Amino acid sequence: MDVVPFPAGVTGSYAAAMERLVGAVQDLSAARDLAGVAAVIRDAARSLTGADGATFVLRDGDECYYVEEDAIEPLWKGRRFPMHACVSGWAMLNARSVVIPDIYADPRVPVEAYRPTFVKSLAMMPIRRAAPIGAIGNYWSEHHVPSPQELSILQALADTTSVALENAELYMRLRGAVQTLQAQKHRISEQHASLGVFTRALAHDLREPVRTLIAFSDLLRPDNEEEAAPATAPASEQSRDTYLRYIGESAERMGALIDSVAQYTRLDAPERFAHMPCRVADVIVEVRENLARIIAERKAKVVHGALPELVADPVHLRQLFQNLIANAILHNAPGLTVTIDFSGGVQGASGTFRVSDDGVGIPEDQREHIFQPFRRLVHRNDASGLGLAICRRIVTLYGGRIECQSAPGAGATFFFSMPDAEGLPGSGDGRLEGGILQNENAREVATVLIVDDREADLELTEIALFRRPGLRCNLRSVRDGREAQRLLSEPGHDVDLILLDINMPDVDGFSLLSQIRDDQALEQLPVIMCSGSDHEPDQRRSAELGAAGYLLKPPRFASFRDILAGQPGLCLLDDGDGLTLMRRCA
Asked: By CB atoms within 10 Å of each CB, which of 62, 215, 237, 442 scores lowest?
């Protein structure tokens, strides 16, 4: 930098100014962001020349942004002016310093902006002489012409500021890159952990039920009796029933473990999350339905107080509460009561949820271990060992923490917060309770057509969606797409909803859905895909073709009910004796 020496007789002032300038340069070299640079300029620019005020201005597109100031009276901190309408803009556009002894005598000065201020004279220095990015201004309350030495020191500060801003920008970029790398490292670490879970499941936990399935299936094979030693008696009917029970339990365990591993590994793909408004009380209703069998078998109760509405992924919320509730019920004696509470504001996503039970409690030395994959306090065939690990992963995704407090014989309480799940005011108009319409605005029972080529899948769908929940409707089924085409082409057909399989011979589900959407007479007919494929492209293609929803086999009534709630031509009517699927009046 070029600093003009002070003339003889002012060496003391020059030495003091140079000392302050050196200090400012040192401070600027340590600044790591814009705020740090602005603070140094605010403290140094005025004192270097003995001015009555100083401003630090940055170029923001076609505007001058007054970032910081230090003056005997307020100037323009935080305000923006057009580049062509202020002196700082002139200094940047022309890449030149400017001195104005009388602001009211210079056409470059926007007098109306200066009239409310103390300013009579000013000097403005561009920050960076080639393609300036800002300016530093000094102001005086009396007419004043700054000396060449004062201007030289002010320009030296501006030049140093240019370097400091570039360093700060570089530092911020580097810090951002480091943070990105750290985030990638963390995600890779989580993916390795998920891979470890998957490998463990394949190497050990899945082999156990597979061995059981193979062993008892062999015992039930007819040729097994022929190959057996003569002294070995054939399996009795009672033994066969026992073997079949073991096979069924092993199959259920395999299914539960596969589902749990899939849930755990899917948490590594945040791009798949779908955040939407969720009433937590409605989520608890769904969880109760999903766990209805074990709640009834173990005579458990699930109760809750006032719960908030959040913007979150509903799948995450269901998994979180279902795992916590099921864990409590399965690991305690029958007759357990599980209570869900929330403390926080009405919108309080930053509040705390509590899921507590009145069971036997958890030993203190196990309260942290229970969140680790495949760690079980007791051996159970219906426990995957991943339930609480999934809970921790979900809560962590939302920036929260989950912990367990317990006392022997006094039950256990799980506390967790989800600060990144945005809270919502209000909770709807009360017309829907758990997705079931409570008033009657309908005229007749709806007809549902199930299209599936597998007899076993037809039976499972009917059981899961209609028989078990006691849902009344006119139910029809066909075994292939051609038959469905013929039925739908009949004049006056009464089909109100289709449950459609994807993989069928001849005319598959996608082809049939496409034909339905291209037919003006059928284009408003709701079609729900019901498939064993959880392949994301299949789900995406279903949505693109206009499917009303997507159910995985075996389908769950809670998911079916959610999809029905969004269909304007249908409603679930609760008349006190059960549910009926109705056509809704226009």
From this structure: 237
Helix, strand, or coil here: 417? Answer: strand
The answer to whether position 501 is within a domain reads: yes
Distance between CA 225 and CA 235 in Å, rounded? 8
20 with 51, same domain: the answer is yes
Please state the pTM of the whole predicted model.
Answer: 0.41
Residue 497 and residue 407 share a domain? no
pLDDT of res. 234: 53
Domain boundary among 147, 172, 197: 172
Distance (Å, rounded) from C-alpha 367 to C-alpha 411? 12
pLDDT at 181 over 90: no
**Is a pLDDT exceeding 50 seen at residue 443?**
no
Q: Pick the more confident residue, 536 or 499.
A: 499
Looking at residue 427, what is its pLDDT?
Answer: 38
SS3 102: coil
Residues with Cβ within 8 Å of 54's Cβ and at least 6 positions away in sequence, in order, are: 41, 42, 45, 46, 69, 70, 71, 136, 137, 138, 139
Q: Are residues 45 and 106 in the same domain?
A: yes
Residue 197 lies in a domain: no
Q: Is there a domain that residue 447 lies in?
A: yes
pLDDT over 60 at 304, yes or no: yes
- In this structure, is the dihedral angle defined by the CA atoms of residues 88, 93, 99 and 101, taken in order, positive or negative? negative
Contact yes or no for 65/41 (Cβ under 8 A): no
Q: How many other CB atoms are found less than 10 A from the CB of residue 106?
A: 15
Confidence of residue 148 (pLDDT cuts 50, 70, 90): confident
Is 566 found in the same domain as 469? yes
Mean pLDDT within 98-122: 91
Q: Which domain holds residue 387?
A: 280-424
**DSSP string covering 277-314, please?**
EEEHHHHHHHHHHHTHHHHHHTT-EEEE----EEEE-H
**Residues 158 and 21 placed together within one structural domain of the fold:** yes
Distance CA 81, CA 234 (A): 96
Q: Does residue 550 share a domain with residue 446?
A: yes
The DSSP secondary structure of 438-499, one letter per residue, reads -S--EEEE-EEEEE-S-HHHHHHHHIIIIITTTEE-EEEEESSHHHHHHHHHSTT----EEE
Q: SS3 for 572?
A: strand
Q: Report residue 428's pLDDT band, with 50, 70 and 90 as the boundaries.
A: very low
